[in-house]
Design brief:
The longest helix has 22 residues, at about 95-115. β1 (about 10-15), α2 and β2 (about 35-40) form a beta-alpha-beta unit. The model has no long low-confidence stretch (mean pLDDT about 90). The protein starts with a helix and ends in an 8-residue tail after the last helix. The protein has helices at about 1-10, 20-30, 90-95, 95-115, 150-165, 190-200, 220-235; strands at about 10-15, 35-40, 60, 80, 120-125, 170-175, 180, 220. It has a single domain, classed as 3-Layer(aba) Sandwich (Rossmann fold). It is an alpha/beta fold and about 240 residues long.
Amino acid sequence: MENLHEFFKNRTVLVTGGAGFIGSHLVEALVALEANVIVIDDLSTGTLENLRDVNGKFKFIKGDISQETVLKNLPKIDIIFNEAALSLSQSFKDPLRNLVVNTGGIINILDLARRFDSKVIHASTGSVYGNPVKIPISEDHPLNPVSPYGCSKLAAEVYCDMFYRIYGLDVCCLRYFNVYGPRQRIGEETGVIPIFVEQALKGQPFTIHGDGSQTRDFLHVKDVVRANLLAAVSDTVKGQK
């Protein structure tokens, strides 16, 4: 982490969705690296409780990245980590709102990055692949999302690629799969690991759908944070996903 500390110290970093499960861990790491951290979150799913144990200073702005006014009065930003998004279950309930936030929001972020010549690390998802046609899924797997959420995230990737090709913006997309770890809430679409942990603590049997032969990739949130930090440091991920 020593080289990361040297890189991030005193840099101004924006984390959108920074009060969420993944975003809060990223904020915690960046503050520890002595970055000047700005957090934007509308608190629709995130909570300030997730940031309670951050050991250091950061600036919090309550706002929705799909609203341009939220981004207008920011100081010069060196690096943007875009973790803000509406979830998969929400996308079926209100696909238009999902598109506005997940795709419209990244357009606003990319415009902001152009203004400051910022580097952008965008949180995408394995949902862009849809139902797998081969296992394991590789980066060249066909992109065929089967949810409004996956469609909005794939559209966001296309905009990131366009800003890279047309404007030369330094942007990278990371596709997360089944992230788990501390601060993950039990909910209607959470991964099986926190559900199994809760059932184990209560002495309940595990809920298994199907015959139990299914396989999944699981990724600890600390590894997601490290991937984001390394992507920000790297000079070779520009335009990659």
